[in-house]
Amino acid sequence: MNENEQFNAPAVLPSTPVDPRLDLAAAVDLAGRTLAAVRPDQYDAPTPCEEFDVRRLSSHLVAVVRRISVIGRGEDPFSVPSFADELADGEWAPAWEPAAREVAAVWADPGILEKPLTLPLGVVPGAIAASVYAHELTVHTWDLATATGQQPEWDPAVPERLLAVVRRALPAETRGGRVPFGEVVAVPDDAPAIDRLVAWAGRRPRT
User: Fold this and answer.
1) Whether the Cβ atoms of residue 178 and residue 121 lie closer than 8 Å to each other
2) Positive or negative, the Cα torsion across 63, 68, 69, 73?
3) Beta-bridge partners for 163
4) Could you give the 3-state DSSP secondary structure of residue 109?
5) Burial 148-185 (b: 16+ CB within 10 A, else e)
6) What is 20-156's CATH number, 1.10.10.10, 1.20.120.450, 2.40.30.60, 3.30.930.10?
7) pTM
8) CB under 8 Å to 195, separation ≥6 — which residues?
9) Residue 168 Cα to chain centre, angstroms
10) Is 149 left (phi over 0), alpha (psi -120 to 50) or beta?
């Protein structure tokens, strides 16, 4: 998902004992490891997100992780461009590490979960913002992994929790127009959680 587009964030999260910042941290970590494993000969490869090749998606991911910190500080999300265009090919992974550390520092205070934060989509509680960006990072990590032949070790609990949120925020019948997702792809109910999550985002899982 491009976070500049339509995403009808729910007013409250489904009841869960898990702090949504943990899912955000897991998504940041896995995205960084997947980005670090991209080879130079893969930069021009297409991804399941049709608007991005691997190079453009890598640049976008760095921009997203930077924006997560800006949002957590209560600043203007549009102060961060949607792409880290100042980075040359291969500089995305080194840029990821300090950006990820900043996310961890900015989001360390539990009080951020109840704080109103400004996203490109509007003002939402921090708990919702954490899930919105965990979702974006997870789907785009899957895009990048698929494009580069990687098989990340997904913690199934993370996409399972994100799916519970996104099914409320992104109903199946609201696709098209400003909604940057294709139609929901049918997958078995017992498919892996990551497959069900990306299928809800209009991607076609590999399995």
Assistant:
1) no
2) positive
3) none
4) coil
5) beeebebbeebbebbbebbbebbeeeeeeeebbbeebe
6) 1.20.120.450
7) 0.89
8) 187, 205, 207
9) 17
10) left
Neighbour tally for 32: CB within 10 Å: 21
Q: Phi then psi for 57, rounded to 5 degrees? A: -65, -40
β-strands 122-125, 116-119 pairing: antiparallel
Could you tell me the residue ranges of all domains in the chain?
20-156
State whether residue 21 is helix, strand or coil.
helix
- Model confidence over 72-118: pLDDT tens digits? 999 999 999 999 999 999 999 999 999 999 999 999 999 999 999 99
Sole residue written with tokens 């925020």: 169
